[in-house]
Amino acid sequence: MRLAMYVVVLIAVIIFGLVMYSFTFKDIETPKYQVVKTFGKVEIRKYPNLILAQTKLGSSEYKSSGNNGFRTVANYIFGGNSKQQKIAMTAPVIMDMGDSASMSFVMPAEYEMDDLPKPASDQVQIRKQESKTLAVLRFGGYSDDEKIRKYAKRLEEVLLENNIKVKSALFYMGYNAPWDVVNRRNEVAFEVEFEH
Fold first, then answer.
1. Residue 185 included in any domain
2. Is residue 14 part of a domain?
3. How far apart are CA 34 and CA 28, in angstroms?
4. How does DSSP classify residue 81?
5. What is the domain range of residue 92?
6. Torsions phi, psi of 117, nearest 5?
7. What is the count of structural domains for the chain?
8. Integer distance in angstroms from the first to the last C-alpha of the chain?
């Protein structure tokens, strides 16, 4: 009986390890942005047009809305759509933390709007986002509302010091699966006016 239990535990550990490895080291597509200027650790990035799968959130708080928003949009790419089609996961997951809070997944670059299946849930919309210039500050570890606010304040201070006008509410961008323990990448960002 004990041997069977050890075998089950060992198999579970091996499967868990393989899953961790696949998500930690897998090449995940990210948007091809251009860094046009840096101010210390702050990057001014020009992003191309993107296609987003997006859901509205009940609140702009990361803790209360992040998981539900993630699950809603993840369901779309895992087959919750008119073709029951799986769509590759990309990074980052983007949370608009303004009054009209939302959670978005960037669709892989291979897709045009017409190529994407219709979401099965009316809570998910497919929309095109025009090219934007973002001011971005990166930080590591696990995120929470306090940490996001702290780095957003730092980002605002750098923008103010350099007379860069903010055009949007705060965005949070997360790049890792919840089970990634090392090399976690998080970013806070604002859309800005910046001539280059």
1. yes
2. no
3. 18
4. B
5. 31-193
6. -70, 155
7. 1
8. 69
C-alpha–C-alpha distance, residues 170 and 135, integer Å: 10
Cα gap 143→186, rounded to integer Å: 7
Residue 96 has which token pair? 């608009």
Q: Residue 130 burial by CB count (10 A; 0-12/13-18/19+): exposed, middle or buried?
A: exposed
What CATH number should be reported for the domain holding residue 74?
3.20.80.10
In a domain, 16, yes or no: no
Greater confidence, 177 or 164?
A: 164
Instruction: Please enumerate in sequence order all residues whose Cβ is within 8 A of that of 3, keeping only pairs 6 or more positions apart, or say none.
Output: none
Residue 7 falls inside a structural domain: no
- What confidence tier does 22 reach under pLDDT thresholds 50, 70, 90? very low
Are the C-beta atoms of residues 59 and 65 closer than 8 Å to each other? yes
Spatial separation of the C-alpha atoms in residues 58 and 42, rounded to whole Å: 30
